[in-house]
């Protein structure tokens, strides 16, 4: 299972997220048994916004680290 997830250039957070999804699917007994409710729809709709916020925060941290190195 873990070997299937390992691909070049996979970030640690991506690997952890993939593992969580796999574990959740197994806990429900398969993909067809997962209940889809309004809470899931709402969470999925906001995923892109959360990702964009994460990217902005990462850029901000990298910029701060770069300025510290220059000083």
Could you please describe the fold and organization of this structure?
The protein has helices at residues 2-5, 12-27, 38-45, 47-70. The model has no long low-confidence stretch (mean pLDDT 84). It starts with a helix and ends with a helix. The chain is 73% helix and 0% strand. By secondary structure, the chain is mostly helical.
Please sum up the structure shown.
The chain has helices spanning 2-5, 12-27, 38-45, 47-70. By secondary structure, the chain is an all-alpha fold. The relative contact order is 0.06.
Uncertain segments are none
By secondary-structure content and strand pairing, the structural class works out as mainly alpha
Q: What shape does the CA trace take?
A: elongated
> What Rg do the Cα atoms give?
17 Å
Q: Count of helical segments?
A: 4
Fraction of residues in β-strands: under 5%
List the SSEs and their pairings:
Elements (H helix, E strand, L loop, with lengths): L1 H4 L6 H16 L10 H8 L1 H24 L1
